Fold this protein.
Amino acid sequence: MARLNPSTAINRENPFKRNWLSTSLWILLGLYLVYSFNAMGLSWQRISDGLGFAGKLLDKMFPPNFSRWELLLNGLGESLEIAIISSIAGIIISLFLGLFAARNMMPGWVSTPTRTFIAICRTFHPVIIAILFVKSVGFGALAGILTLIVASIGFIAKLFAEAIEEISLKQVEAIRATGASFVSVILFSVMPQVFSRFIGFSTYQLDSNLRNSTMVGIVGAGGLGGTLFSAFQRFDYDFVAAILITIIALIMFGELLSNIIRGVFR
Amino acid sequence: MSSTQAFLEIKGLKKEYVAGKPILKGIDVTIKEQGIIAIIGPSGTGKSTLLRCINRLIDPTDGEIVFEEKDICKAQNQQLRKLRRHLGMVFQEYNLVERLTVIENVLTGRLGYMSAWQAWRRKYSQEDINTAFELLEAVGLSEQAKQRADSLSGGQRQRVGIARAVMQDPRIILADEPTSSLDPKTAVEIMELLERFSLEKNIPALVNIHDVTLARRFAKRIIGMSEGQVVYDGSPENITDDHLKKIYGGESWLD
């Protein structure tokens, strides 16, 4: 093709040149994947062996054995209590922490430490927190409740703070101009703007706590997880199946509960 | 309050957002009369800053604002809130709490008189509730009392905004461009409402306004501001084209 302007006959850089850096990074990733497969001893042989074991396990699980329903019901009740107590306590604490962490409502010397605290709550997986609490307050439901409160704070306090940071300050200014006290300003200009989102976050957290309440028992922090773990260890796979079905029912129930709460506050 | 005492005395008010770049360069204004007092001037000249300094939504850098025998600039916390509740503010973009109902928005005007605990349980006195409904009637919105504020039109919202300000039992109404987001007919109606309430309550209404014609029609006194200073302060009849040139600069816009 003829040049538009022959007088400036310099070669421009090709914008679609191969980027050697990104190419080599892709190659490295591929090599690492192959290496990892080898290091883990993964092979088709291993996978087909594994599937055989899974088949035997499923065979032993059916039919589920509900004969020890009292034990099951006890564990279920405890899990439900852990979930509800920790959700409500976690939500109430998060309401305050979320407000203190909101940078548009609080000066930096309040919001920064609060944010740091929330971030620390979110750092560890609930299993690790549960182990820490079991070691410090002993086996049982208390450790589970404390674990899930910490987990709830780490998650929803942050979401609360972000919701508060997105509100319209015009409404806040108007209420402040009426001579309202700080708490009244929060109640009448911040809460109306964030309330429906708070309900959404809270029901999500309740749902998540129901799931986690069956997990904390595995490390000895109370609830259905403990029953599940000991059933595994005693190879009572039919009882394991019964517990798993119960957990599914519990989560379904949680879903239903969340929908009802959302409906009420719409 | 005796007739000779001023509602508001502003002395040497200065405000700098950035040090060394004052937006208000020493304002001296004394308000003794009731009715509408218009503050005119181009955008960015400090009209809004002036009003917001009066109720301390903005902290002034220097100067004195004497209101009810107290210096607003020095008031803190409880004392500031007690002064604020007698300063009813009307906003350009209404600033209603959109998710609350219209009647609740009007009742927020009483928050300065209640503890947060009372407010949380919505324990308004029967008298306040009666007043709120009467005010809604006065601004012509009784029908909409139970609707959410975000369902109203601009003009309706501003009426609620005015009702909220009057609900505070103000000694002064501050209105920051209350009409500039509205059509000309609604704007006149809003000015009429402000005039009516200020005369009924025997209080002044300080109104920031762009529209010189509207200011001339309603104001008893016009304060012209330019570049952070008061350049005209007097009756609307005496304001001349020369004054307007001085306030707004240039003359091509005058015909």
Observations:
- Chain B has a mean pLDDT of 91.
- The domain at 8-94+165-248 of chain B is CATH 3.40.50.300 (Rossmann fold).
- Chain B is about 35% helix and 25% strand.
- Residues 41 and 225 of chain B are 5 Å apart (CA to CA).
